[in-house]
Amino acid sequence: MDLAISVEGVSKHFGEVEALDGVTLDVPRGSIFGLVGPNGAGKTTLIRILVGALRADSGAVQVQGVDPFTEKRRVRAHVGYMPQAPVLYGDLTSRENVAFFARGHMSSGVSEKVAAALEFADLSDAADRPVYTLSGGIQQRVSLAATLVHEPDVLFLDEPTAGIDAELRHSFWLRFRRLAGSGVTLIVSTHQMDEVAHCDRVAILRSGRILANASPTELFASGGATVRIRTGTIEHHVALLPEDLPRILREFDLDTAVTRIEAETATLEDVILGLIGSDGEERGAG
Q1: pLDDT (tens digit, 9 = 90+) per residue, 47-81?
Q2: Which residue has the higher pLDDT, 94 or 254?
Q3: Cα–Cα distance between 163 and 159 in angstroms, integer?
């Protein structure tokens, strides 16, 4: 497997708080990898380690084949990081903000790179407006353009769709998929569980530990289904996969008293909440 990121046994403490506890995962190049979990699960801490902003207490990390903390200069040219809240200069225009970040990475060809990043983020109408006059959603797009302007190989997006409307969220994910299609690797942190389906693979975190690491299809399949068979006024509930329906029917000998059969498939949200615990208690990954 051609890996963009390798994390092995990484732990991180802040005083008595265990932010990460033995995290291990691999991310193939050109994929979208989701980090999913509630606030405080360790998603941001892991991203900060991967971009070289924090040193892990233990374990090994490689991004594009190098340690991001000890070789910051080498990694910096290959990664882009979009934090939760846009880090922009309000009095500068969108174009000027993106150009500012571009000059931190290159000395020539800035104008062309800036124009391409603004076009990708669909900022033509807002390119020459001061950032403080823009809505929060458009500021998020400026932040994305600034993150992409030096054409990174690996993109870290920390809650990139938080606080924006459904239409803009859809637009962002279309752009993320285009980037992955061009070979860029994306690490997307989110606590919005409906976004899991957009990822190629997902790590579900809680309290600094990975509870599951699987594709959305695998997560979906692990939820199984509940089959309800009504005989007269009695309902029989069986938590099995839909493929087991013929066996269930045989158990009832295709009884003519069966008046209704329902199969309710678990949603991805059901599966994730079942792992992290809607009541705050962790569940086994199975």
Answers
A1: 999 999 999 999 999 999 999 999 988 888 899 99
A2: 94
A3: 9
Quick: pLDDT tens for 200-211.
Answer: 999 999 999 999
Which of helix, strand or coil describes residue 94?
A: helix
How would DSSP label each residue in the chain? --EEEEEEEEEEEETTEEEEEEEEEEEETT-EEEEE-STTSSHHHHHHHHTTSS--SEEEEEETTB-TTTTHHHHHTTEEEE-SS----TTSBHHHHHHHHHHTT-SSSHHHHHHHHHHHTT-GGGTTSBGGGS-HHHHHHHHHHHHHTT--SEEEEESTTTT--HHHHHHHHHHHHHHHHTT-EEEEEES-GGGGGGSSEEEEEETTEEEEEE-HHHHHHHT-EEEEEEETTEEEEEEE-GGGHHHHHHHTTT-TTEEEEEEEEPPHHHHHHHHH-TTS------
How far is Cα 37 from Cα 196, in angstroms, rounded to an integer? 11
- Inform me whether the pLDDT recorded for 282 exceeds 60: no
The reported pLDDT for the residue numbered 194 is 78
Give the pLDDT band of residue 284 (cuts 50, 70, 90).
very low
Q: Which candidate, 123, 126, 264, 284, places its Cα nearest to that of 209?
A: 284
CA distances from 262 to 20, 227, 231 (A): 42, 6, 12
pTM of the model: 0.79
| The residue type at 162 | A
As given in the structure block, the two tokens for residue 121 are 């983020």
